[in-house]
């Protein structure tokens, strides 16, 4: 699965997140103005994001939030950088930094060989893939337990492939993640597979004992997340990696992950 996630547009709406496009549009964001690569000390970093919860988004006050958002804020604070936000569609984030509209993509981007042909990636920020969601009283503890059961998936997602691989009794299709989770709650299905970080954050926002995420869980579609920078800006790459190492050595790293519903399973050394 090369895309970061399967249902981004739903996530923001379903979670009620007011997404303010504070830095959207325009090619004059000045990504290269203070983001390194010219031998001058970095004073400002302009990050590119699709403004998508729970990964990297601005709140009503225009402050950068989210898993990746809080990580870059932490690094920038330690480095003494100002952070600016450039918003664009996810598919255009890499072209944006290559065009100098921003300095780095900070938006839960999967590190893939295809993308590494265009940009450099930092060390891994965290890992995440699909989540296995079951009724609150279910005894399922791993993916094999889902074999021969009734499995729910969202129409059009890659998780259909996963469901089919488990030789289910039946696959039921739903048009939204909200409908998917409701099907688990009502026990219309035995289990569903969907984006782990999105559903984890959904449960943080709206706790529901009728459903639970199986944890620990090894994803069928694992993804390593990193920030992307233009290939020529090795100065910024080094600074981000040193800041990331400092963050991982701090308890703030797990605090950020757990704030958005992630666990030790999502952390990386």
Automatic annotation (TrEMBL):
Keyword Protease attached: no
Keywords, comma-separated and alphabetical: Signal
Keyword Signal: yes
Residues of the Solute-binding protein family 3/N-terminal domain: 44-264
InterPro entries for the chain: Solute-binding_3/MltF_N (IPR001638)
Segment forming the signal sequence: 1-23
Name listed for the protein in its UniProt record: ABC transporter substrate-binding protein
Organism lineage string: Bacteria, Bacillati, Actinomycetota, Actinomycetes, Micrococcales
């Amino acid at each position: 699965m090369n895309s970061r996630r399967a249902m981004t547009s739903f996530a923001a709406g379903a979670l009620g997140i007011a997404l303010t496009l504070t830095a959207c549009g325009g090619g004059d964001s000045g990504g290269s103005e203070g983001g390194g690569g010219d031998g001058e000390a970095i004073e400002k970093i302009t990050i590119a994001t699709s403004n998508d919860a729970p990964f990297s988004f601005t709140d009503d006050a225009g402050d950068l939030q989210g898993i990746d958002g809080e990580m870059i804020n932490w690094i920038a604070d330690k480095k003494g950088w100002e952070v600016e936000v450039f918003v664009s569609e996810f598919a255009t984030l890499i072209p944006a930094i290559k065009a100098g509209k921003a300095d780095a993509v900070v938006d839960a981007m999967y590190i893939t060989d295809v993308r590494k042909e265009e940009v450099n990636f930092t060390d891994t920020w965290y890992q995440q893939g699909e989540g296995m969601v079951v009724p609150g009283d279910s005894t399922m503890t791993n993916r094999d337990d889902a074999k021969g059961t009734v499995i729910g998936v969202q129409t059009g997602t890659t998780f259909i492939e996963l469901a089919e691989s488990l030789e289910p009794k039946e696959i039921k299709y739903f048009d939204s993640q909200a409908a998917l989770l409701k099907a688990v709650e009502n026990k219309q299905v035995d289990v569903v597979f969907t984006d782990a970080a999105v559903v984890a954050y959904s449960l943080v926002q709206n706790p529901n004992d009728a459903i639970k995420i199986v944890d620990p869980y090894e994803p069928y579609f694992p993804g390593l997340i990193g920030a992307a920078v233009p290939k020529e800006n090795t100065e910024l790459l080094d600074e981000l990696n040193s800041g990331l190492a400092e963050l991982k050595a701090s308890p703030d790293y797990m605090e950020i992950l757990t704030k958005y519903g992630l666990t030790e399973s999502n952390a990386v050394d």
